[in-house]
Each structure stands twice: as structure tokens, then as C-alpha cells.
Amino acid sequence: MKELDNYIESNRERFLGELKEFLSIPSISNEEDHKNDVRKAAEWLSAELTRIGMENVKIFETEGHPIVYADYLKAGNKPTALIYGHYDVQPVDPVELWTDPPFTPVVKDGNIYARGSADDKGQIFMHVKSLEAHLKINKGLPINIKVIFEGEEEIGSVNLDKFISKNKDLLKSDYVVISDTSMYDKGLPSICFGLRGLCYMQIDVTGPNRDLHSGTYGGGVDNPINALANIITKLKDKDGRITIDGFYDDVVNLSKKEREEFARLPFDEKKYMKDLDVNGLFGEKGYTTIERVSARPTLDCNGIWGGYQGQGAKTVLPSVAGAKISMRLVPNQNPDKIAQLFEKYISKIAPDSVKVKVTALHGGKPSVTAIDTPAIKAAVKALKDAFGVEPVYFKEGGSIPIVNTFKEELGADAILLGFGLPDDNIHSPNEKFDLDNFYKGISTIAYYYDELSKI
Ligand code: BES
Ligand code: ZN
Fold it and tell me: Closest ligand 1 atom, CA of 154?
């Protein structure tokens, strides 16, 4: 352990330099213009995995972005861990709100700022550096390791999903280790034992066959924006309950014990409000904020469009309007079933005066990891050794749909060892990653491989 620590300590600057290089590649997966950059990030990673001594390093082509694979399987009958992460990033809009350009990494106040720094390039790079430290110091790895990094997590992991089903032997492993979540708070190492699922829908509303003068036609035909706004307001009631028929049918209610555990987590509502600069909070009545953001389902409008949005005023009754709506799901909700219920409800409430089209964009199932397992106990030990503090257990409100695929297809549980922080601005301008967490994370992961070898 000491030698690993010394190695990490004496290579801090080089690790940071390499991380900056990786973060400079604009691997935005949902923008066609960045297709080549996504590939560049895959190639950068595979070169790095080769350089540190991993074996069978391969780039697998898919119908979308490539999948990077590597392994090192020389630990005999020791367990096999599959390390999963994603090297694609979210778009940078609104780019004008970034203090520094998103793909020019800058270090300030102990943080590195760049798109993908926390989600998830910085976090997968920690795994690469932990592997490097072991391979350099111990001339091998304490367990068998397989690595799989994808370039499509932010757009639904559709091709990785197919890849897993077709390559079960290649990916067969005892555990999946993922660093793509956050710690509960700074200085408070955490084990995430649940993620929400997702059901992402689009509504397109069409009114008249062309934009109309709002004076000549206003009052005569329905306005698609007004119609859409009415539909959206009917999706939740004033208590924050989702009104879609059957939406809660499969929800597993929180147990008394779970609620007690949530209540024990440190949470300062005033600070939370101040950080976000909001005057009040809103969510489903009868549940605490922590429960609402992690263990209860939600519905949010992610984007809305229609009509005139330029400068000043233009009198127009628009022809079309639309919205993107996501629902975060909890056990045992099924995204396909929820998509059907959503569609049915929309057709029930939509007025006849406009045409309404509902499309399911993508979805993913929620997941939960049992915490009373040797692999989780090993993670607790590694976190404690690196951070000097007992970790807390909590659930994240975000989604990593592939976690469920790993369980269903490979039978492997995911250990979610995340090192982001709640204020890392993932998916927002000025995304950052705390450098203390970066270095302590590298140590934690290096210790974790050792701990897993003792199981
Ligand atoms: N890293 C996040 C998942 C996450 C977010 C975990 C917040 C914990 C807290 C991941 O990259 C992500 O953003 N996932 C998407 C899923 C989707 C596009 C299918 C999400 O949660 O919106
Ligand atoms: Zn992520």
C-alpha cells in the first residue's frame, strides 16, 4: 500500500497533465460534428491502456461510437472485475455561461474545470491510473481485470447494450465496478446503492398548417403552445404527484428502515437552497427532499419549443410546438410500461383542436445493489483507508441504465464507487472535478483491487 501511495504521490503532476490532454478532446456523443472527436477519445484511451501494460486492448466498432476493451487476466482463481465507464460527454450549451472554454482544462481552487471532468472522463482515468500504479509497482494485478469504456452513455448506451448480449463470454465477470456517480458530500466517501431508471419522451403538437397572424386568426384556432402548456400542467398535481393513470402501480414503497436511514444523512436544506439560489423547494408531498431526489419517481420537462423566440415582439400564432419530458423511475417501474401509460394519458387529455404525437426516445431500468455483500465491504474498507472516514450509503437520482443490463446479462452486481461531488455541475456549464477526490480516488481504487483479491 505504501509503495502504491508513493507512486501515486510522485506522479501527481504527470497524471494531471495526462488528464488535461484527455479532457481536451471534445467527445460529445450526440453531435454529428464531433463524431471524429469521440473516436479520438477512444483511440487516446486505448493507446493509454496499451502504454500502461494492459492486454488485448481493442476498439470494437458499433453502429454508433466505438467501445474500448482491455483486460489483464493473470490472477488465476482470483475474482474478475469488469470496470465500466464512459468517455463521451454532454454537449456544452449554453457555452457562453462557461468561465473558461469547456475543452481547455483549467485548474482553479483545487478543481479541474472542463466538460467531462467529473462525468465521466476524470473518473475513468482514475481507474486507468490505479491499474498503472499496480502494474508498475507490483508487476501485475491482484485480481483479474476487464475494462470496458463506451462512447454512448449520454445517449442511452444502445449499442453497448447489444454488445453485452452478444459478448457475454468476453465480459463474464464477478463484479462490475463503476465510478460515474458522486460522493454524498466533500470529505464524505460514499457507496451508492441505487440509481433511478429513466423514461424519456417527446411530445409534438401541431396546429394550423402554417404560422398565422395572431390578430387575424387568434381566437379562431387553437394555439399549439397553449395546448401543449395545458397538457404539461396536467401531468402533475399541486402536491407534486404525477397524474398519469397507473404511474405509481409498480413503485416499491420506501420501508420504515430506509426512511430512517435517509433521515440520518446530513442534509442542510437552507444551504441547499442557497447553493441553488431558489426561494423554495418543490416536490412530491409527504417525502423529504433527499427521498424525493433519489428514491421517488419524478417527471420533468427538459426542453420546450414553439413560436417566436427572437428579439422583441412578433405577432404569430405558431403552427407547431413541442417538449421533451423525462421521468425518473424507481424499483419496480418499467420504462416501456411507463412509456405506454404516458402515451395513453396524453391521448386522453389532449384536446381535439390540435394533433398530438408522442414518441419514446429512450429509457433505462432502475437498479439497486445489495449492501451486505463482501464486494461492498471491501469497498468500504478501501474508502476508509483512502479518506480516513467511514463511508455513507445513499441512492443517486441519476441513471446509468447499463447497470441493469450487466445484472441481467452477466449476473454481475455493480459496485458504484463515485468520486464526483454534488456541486460538480455535471451536464451544466463550468463542470469541474475536485482534485483531492481525483487523487484519493486513484488510491481507493488501487486499494480496492487488493481488497477484492482477499474475498
Ligand atoms: N454520470 C451520470 C449518472 C449520474 C448522474 C449518476 C447524477 C449520479 C448522479 C450519467 O452520465 C448520466 O448523466 N446519465 C444519464 C442517463 C441517460 C442519458 C440515459 C442521466 O442520468 O440523465
Ligand atoms: Zn456519466
Answer: 18
Q: Is the CB of 80 under 6 A from ligand 1?
A: no
Q: 201 and 183 in one domain?
A: no
Alpha-carbon gap, residue 442 to 422, rounded angstroms = 19
**The three three-digit cell numbers of residue 180, written as one number:** 460515474
10 plus 43 within the same structural domain: yes
Rounded-to-integer distance, Cα 301 and Cα 299, Å: 7
Whether the CB of 391 sits within 6 Å of ligand 1 = no
Nearest ligand 1 atom to the CA of 180 is: 1
**In this structure, which residue's CA is closest to atom 19 in ligand 1?**
156
DSSP class of 72: E
Could you tell me if the CB of 150 is within 6 A of ligand 1? no
- Alpha helical stretches, state H, 362-420: 374-387, 402-405
Q: Which of 316, 337, 364 is the last residue of a domain?
A: 364
Catalytically active residues, by annotation: 88, 153
Whether residue 85 has its Cβ less than 6 Å from ligand 1: no
Q: Ligand 1 pocket, 424 CB below 6 A?
A: no
The grid coordinates listed for 273 are 437552497
Residue 326 pairs in a beta bridge with: 200, 300
Q: Domain of 303?
A: 197-252+296-364
Is it the case that residue 1 has pLDDT exceeding 80?
Answer: no
User: What pLDDT, in 10s, does the model give residues 396-452?
Assistant: 999 999 999 999 999 999 999 999 999 999 999 999 999 999 999 999 999 999 999
Q: Average pLDDT of 145-163? A: 96
Please state the pTM of the whole predicted model: 0.93
60-94 confidence digits (pLDDT tens) = 999 999 999 999 999 999 999 999 999 999 999 99
Half-sphere exposure of 363 (CA within 13 A, CB side): 21
Residues with CB under 5 A from ligand 2 (ion): 119-120, 180
- Round to whole Å and give the CA distance between 164 and 155: 17
H-type helices in 102-186, by residue range?
Answer: 121-137, 158-166, 168-171
Mean pLDDT, the chain, whole residue set: 97
- 14 and 108: one domain? yes
Q: What is the dihedral of CA 73, 384, 395, 261, to 10 degrees?
A: 140
Q: How far apart are CA 118 and CA 438, in angstroms?
A: 9
Residues 203 and 346 in one domain: yes
* Grid cell at residue 9: 504521490
| Ligand 1 atom closest to residue 363's alpha carbon, by position in its atom list | 19
Q: Where does residue 399 fall: left (phi above 0), alpha (psi -120 to 50 degrees), or beta otherwise? A: beta
- Spacing, Cα 87 to ligand 2 middle (Å): 9
Rg of the chain's alpha carbons, rounded to an integer? Answer: 23
